[in-house]
């Protein structure tokens, strides 16, 4: 699935939270409605069977409750995508990534292995830390294999881990540095890997048990180092396992370039003939220490971006026509949703997990927060289906985006005001709910969940009202620009 990811370590975020976010984008020519749901333990399958391929496995009998963003139309399976479980562990699956023919020749993809359809459902309900997520998914990959290349994020209150699959059965994972962020644009991204740590202490690196032997036996090591003793800067994982194709330079690397250019504008020279990195560079860093702490708004902006401030902006009337639309945007027409998962260290665990949710094309939507410690979600975000209707957030956002795109210069101010107002209310909402939680007479689990569900419903009602308002403005603006318009004082 074409997607874009950003991971932010706790010392790099504005409030000390770990932050993880990923756009789920549908394939070209397809738009996939999404639902925000809770899967309670009694609803979790004990035997899992995929829809798209012949894969099935038994699941443990002790699942935890978790949130998910599955397909609203389930004919292709679940596709749970992103969620937070009751242990305040989050998972985001998956960033479809690249490989090369050497890897795929040595370890072919598995026709009936696991995939994005399955991973959240068979992993998230059973893990109590980000590290456990890597271990569980890694063991499943080694046993069953996968039929596609994927990157998967795991997050708890202290750590974020990023796992990338290598061929059918192999994998590597690296912990996001606490003071850094990581970007992922549909391309195998880990640039350096410490085998000494992965095969020993596993402090910041993990991998499949035989990965070092696999590299040696198949001549995959393009670095001038011994694999089994290679420390972090010595082994070039991207060169060994990844790609640098012409299509990468149009579809993938430009997105990494824009995100790092935005978050580290002064660290490198990003533009012109003397640029350190260009949109087509193969060596854009996997992780960077940001120049300032990263906010929710920063994440929403980069995951909504279409090369604003550059000559590649498809909406810029001043841009040279041949440059406009040259590279694949992050905020694309076929964004399905983005969930920014935030695990906060400074509040009671009962209210630590928050999901900021956007739906539809990110260039024209907003992001609002919902608490994850719940047993049900608001109808406005849960009830999407095949029917196009403004009665749910997905389809309302999709309609707004299609109208606003057609009349960008007339509509973008409406979108910016909508986003500013609703995200501002989102921060105020969190403050109110946190304060209300402190005043609860009882911290009984059922009462806490009921309280958070009520407050989530209030946020959804607010969101619905504001979304109707911006739809009204965008529709009015677009209607006035119809080609059959005619002005005359004929009354």
Name a few traits of the molecule:
single chain; 491 residues; alpha+beta; 2 domains; seven-stranded antiparallel sheet; 19 strands; 18% strand; globular
If you had to describe this structure to a student in words, what would you say it looks like?
- The chain has 491 residues and is α+β, with helices and mostly antiparallel strands.
- The chain folds into two domains: 3-346; 387-481.
- It is built from 13 helices and 19 strands.
- It has helices at residues 101-106, 119-123, 130-144, 195-198, 211-217, 237-241, 248-251, 253-263, 296-303, 379-382, 393-406, 408-438, 445-480; strands spanning 3-8, 18-25, 37-39, 47-49, 56-58, 66-68, 82-84, 90-96, 150-155, 160-166, 170-175, 181-184, 192-193, 205-207, 235-236, 287-288, 335-343, 353-359, 368-371.
- Helix 11 (393-406) packs antiparallel against helix 12 (408-438).
- The protein is globular, with a radius of gyration of 22 Å.
- It starts with a strand and ends in an 11-residue tail after the last helix.
Which helices and strands appear, and what pairs or packs with what?
Elements: E1 3-8, E2 18-25, E3 37-39, E4 47-49, E5 56-58, E6 66-68, E7 82-84, E8 90-96, H1 101-106, H2 119-123, H3 130-144, E9 150-155, E10 160-166, E11 170-175, E12 181-184, E13 192-193, H4 195-198, E14 205-207, H5 211-217, E15 235-236, H6 237-241, H7 248-251, H8 253-263, E16 287-288, H9 296-303, E17 335-343, E18 353-359, E19 368-371, H10 379-382, H11 393-406, H12 408-438, H13 445-480
Antiparallel strand pairs: 1-2, 1-12, 2-17, 3-6, 4-5, 7-8, 8-9, 9-10, 10-11, 11-14, 12-16, 13-15, 17-18, 18-19
Helix pairs in contact: 11-12, 11-13, 12-13
